[in-house]
Design brief:
Length: about 150
């Protein structure tokens, strides 16, 4: 019986480590951030419709007098009145948590209970003391895009 050399064993271990790293970092769809990157195919909107590549959402995805948190894009979209789209950072100014939702007339942080205005991002209830930074967006047809 022939025993493997030390070099053969080390090369096998190294190849296994590289394979594990590639498997952990690549492949499969883990989220919408990977879908549509580098392609011209439309991405799915939060409600399942089609939107243009590069669009954050469709206007119809943002409820009037409410909003949506786009956690992967780190953006909160609100529609205080019909046709008026506002956008803010989805990162709470208190401790950096991603905001949870827009509900009951507030943009809400699930970590420590801060609440922000969907009209202007101002603090309605602490512990946050600074408003949410605005994000520049525009409406292009039915799509909401950065800009």
């Amino acid at each position: 019986m022939t025993w493997p050399t030390r070099r053969t064993v080390l090369m096998g271990v190294g190849a296994a480590g590289v394979s594990a790293a590639v498997a952990a970092c690549g492949g499969g769809e883990s989220g919408s951030a990977e879908r549509g990157v580098g392609t011209s195919a439309p991405a799915a909107s939060p409600t399942g419709g089609e939107q243009s590549a590069g669009a954050l959402a469709k206007v119809s995805d943002v409820p009037v007098a409410g909003g949506v948190v786009l956690a992967e894009q780190k953006v909160v979209l609100t529609q205080p009145t019909e046709g008026e789209i506002k956008a803010f950072s989805a990162v709470c100014t208190h401790r950096g948590c991603t905001l949870a939702d827009v509900k009951d007339g507030s943009i809400n942080c699930g970590c420590h209970g801060s609440r922000f205005s969907p009209q202007d991002g101002s603090v309605r209830h602490g512990p946050a003391t600074r408003p949410l930074p605005s994000v520049r967006v525009k409406v292009d047809g039915e799509d909401i895009v950065r800009g």
